[in-house]
Each structure stands twice: as structure tokens, then as C-alpha cells.
Amino acid sequence: MAAAAEQPVQPVELELLAEYPVDGMAGGNLSGLTRCGAEWLAVSDREDERLYRLVPGDAAWQAEAETFAASPVPRSALPWGLRMRTWAANLVRGGELDFESISCDAKGNRYLLSEAHTALLQVGPSGMAEWLALPDELLRQARASGMLLRHNALLEGLVVDQAGERLWLAAERERRGLLVLHKDKGRWRCTGGCILMSEAGQLRSPLTPQSDQRHPRSFGDLAFHDGRLFTLERLEQRICRRDLTTGAEQKCWSFSAAALADGRSYPEPYGNAEALWLDKDGAWLGLDNNDQARADGESRPLLWHFKAPAGGWSAP
Fold first, then answer.
1. Among 23, 48, 62, 101, who pairs with 97 as Cys (CB 3.0-4.6 Å)?
2. How confident is the model at residue 7 (pLDDT cuts 50, 70, 90)?
3. What is the rounded distance in angstroms from the CA atom of residue 183 to the CA atom of residue 289?
4. Residues forming beta bridges with residue 255, ordered by sequence position
5. What is the Cα gyration radius of the chain?
6. CA 18, CA 285: separation in Å to the nearest integer?
7. Which residues does the UniProt record annotate as the domain Phytase-like (predicted)?
8. In this predicted structure, what is the pLDDT of residue 3?
9. Which architecture characterizes domain 12-307 according to CATH?
């Protein structure tokens, strides 16, 4: 297991091409984003038993709900006290399953990550939903590495490869980390260990340069492109490419300039970049604003579209 290295070089700023408000998502909680074939899909961490198709528009995108019926979630192996805190919090805010990320394989299977239960729901193209059996050692190894110990700091990001044979998970914070599973004879397993990296530490936010306050490093989401793994790092306001076998940081790109532009600030801690999807042409970020308005009055969830960096995402 290798800890991610510090990034000594200031990341290059990504160029914001456009931003699109999203209509039709209750509460503004856009927490996950992916593209499945020609369809854009999203999830909300406040709504169970549905995902959203996003229909692009010139001024705004429209979210259209696709409902599904899932069986009761498998019993979580998290400690009783942590499960009860999560249950109580979700009872108040809504979203008992707390879907934080969505990914898709080439067969059209959608994978939804439930943070509250550290569980994965697979929704097939027909709408049939089933909970995936995850290996017991996944949670055991993660907690032994210092991850998944705190309420509301559990699994936050998910991505699956197009073959549906490998998937990666991101532990959010305190400690943050990357985990990997491989499908073997139809079952998800820890092959050679589940943990790629585990990392602690606190940093100042580039969005509040005047403040000395430090916050825990965190992961918001994951993307997989051109055989490479990418992380959304909300505190640092950046996207990073990471080594597939160690999780070590290879190269990062910043989007802090876009977030700092006039009118785009939110009352803390809202307006976080929560969702990531990228291809050879650019990156898409989804902002979870919890129905809060930013400085210019916009209160809908937002998609930011950035141009791919010069040389592409795989450049040295």
C-alpha cells in the first residue's frame, strides 16, 4: 500500500467551456454523474429508488426520473453505533440509501453506490435492481487502514470499467483512500488486497485564501478513462490522475479559477463538486448545492464542462 505523494507543482487550470443548470432534480442534490452509451445519467443522495436521465439543452438540462424497485438493502457490517447515526441523519434529511455515485458498464448495467450502507446496487437496462455481494474483507481491510470510521465519511466515489470486471471505490475523508475489486467467476473479490492507498492530512481551501482554517483531504468521485483512474478532489478543487496499482498521484489539473469567478460562491459548505465524468474532449463536474443559492442567485444544481488539457489526460 502506498500513500499518495505530495504534488509539488501548481496544477494547470482547466478552461471552463460552459455551465448548465439542471431542472427537475428535487433538492438540488446532484451527487453522481455518468454517461451510459449516448445517455447522461445522474443520482441524488436524497432520493431512493430512482436515478435520472439528463437531457441536454442550450440553456439548461432537464432531469427525467427513471424509477426502480430494489429489495431491502443487505445488513451492513459497519458497527451498530455508526449505522444508527447514519440512519438518524438520513431520517431527518431524506434519502435512506444516500446514493453518492453512479457508473455504467458496456452492457448498460448501472452501478449505484450507497454511502449509508457501504453497498452497491446494480440496475440493469430493463430496470431490474439487485444488491451486489461484496467481499467481507473489503470493509475489514478499509477500517484496518483507518478508513470508514466516521459518520458521513464513508464511501463517496465509484467507477467500473467498461467490461464490468473491475471497480474502484473512494473513501471520502479522515482517512481518504482508494479501494479496488475484481470480478472472479461472477463474484467480486479482493485480489491481492482491496486497498490501493490510504491518506490522512488537512489543507487550506483555495476557495478561502484569506482563512487559515484547515479541512480534511477528501475524495468526491472517480472516473476511468483510457485505462487510467482519475479522482475528484473537492478541497483542493482539482482532478488528479492516479496510478492504477498504488493510487499514487501522477498529475493534477485545477478548476479553482472557475469556482472563484464572480457570482459562483456558495455559503459554506454547499456548492461542492460531487460528481465527475471525463472523456478525451473534456471533463464534466456536477455540483451538489443542497438547494442553496449561490452569489448570483442560481439555486439549481449545476454541470460544469471543462476543455481537456493540452496533450490530453494521459500526457506525462
1. 48
2. very low
3. 35
4. none
5. 18
6. 11
7. 28-237
8. 47
9. 6 Propeller (2.120)
Question: Has residue 4 got a pLDDT over 60?
Answer: no
Band the pLDDT of 90: cuts 50, 70, 90: confident
Adjacency order of strands within the sheet including 30-36 = 30-36, 39-44, 50-55, 61-67, 16-23, 302-307, 282-288, 272-278
| 122: number of Cβ within 10 Å | 17
Beta bridge partners of 282: 307
> What gap in Å lies between CA 252 and CA 239, rounded to an integer?
6
Judged against a pLDDT cut of 50, whether residue 173 lies above it is answered with yes
Domain ranges of the chain: 12-307
**Contact indicator for 221, 272 with CB cutoff of 8 Å:** no
What's the CA gap between 272 and 221, in Å, rounded? 11
Q: What is the CB-side half-sphere exposure of residue 259 using CA atoms within 13 A?
A: 25
Cell matching residue 30: 446532484
pLDDT tens digits, 36-68: 999 999 999 999 999 999 999 999 999 999 999
Rounded to an integer, what distance in angstroms lies between the CA atom of residue 95 and that of residue 114?
10
Please provide residue 52's backbone torsions phi and psi, each rounded to the nearest 5 degrees: -125, 135
For the question of whether the overall pTM of this predicted structure is more than 0.90, the answer is yes
Task: State how far the Cα of 229 lies from the Cα of 168, in Å rounded to an integer.
Answer: 9
With 50 as the cut, is the pLDDT of residue 250 above it? yes
Give the residue ranges of DSSP H helices in 178-279.
Answer: 256-260
Strands 221-225 and 228-233, by their bridges, are: antiparallel
State residue 280's pLDDT score: 97
Number of Cβ atoms within 10 Å of the Cβ of 133? 12
